[in-house]
Specification:
Helices cover about 25% and strands about 35% of the residues. It has about 90 residues and is an alpha+beta fold. It has one domain: Aminopeptidase (3-Layer(aba) Sandwich), CATH 3.40.630.30. The chain is globular and about 40 Å long. This is GNAT family acetyltransferase. Pfam families: Acetyltransf_CG. Keywords: Transferase.
Length: about 90
């Protein structure tokens, strides 16, 4: 599985290069990223892939000096369960 960044989304590609999942965000000004959607095809669930998509968003926020508002229920749960993401969570 490969994660590729496109405009305001990370795409999860399977070994054949087909889309298997995505995480999308919107930018609210230069300092805020709003994660609004995370999806993994049911065929690939249970492999921690959605967690990897959110982690990619966290890394991007750190690299770009942004804070994240996790609106998507899955991303919100990830932020609640992972204190190591606190540095990029918009309070």
């Amino acid at each position: 599985m490969e994660i590729k960044e496109e405009k305001e989304r990370f795409v999860l590609l399977n070994d054949e290069g087909n889309e298997a999942g995505e995480m999308t965000w919107s930018n609210a000004g230069p300092e805020i990223m709003i994660i609004d959607h995370t999806f993994v095809d049911p065929t690939y669930r249970g492999q921690q892939l959605a967690q990897k998509l959110v982690a990619a968003g966290v890394e991007k926020a750190r690299k770009d000096g942004k804070k994240i508002i996790p609106l998507c229920p899955f991303a919100k749960k990830e932020f609640e369960e992972k204190p190591e993401y606190a540095d990029v969570l918009r309070k």
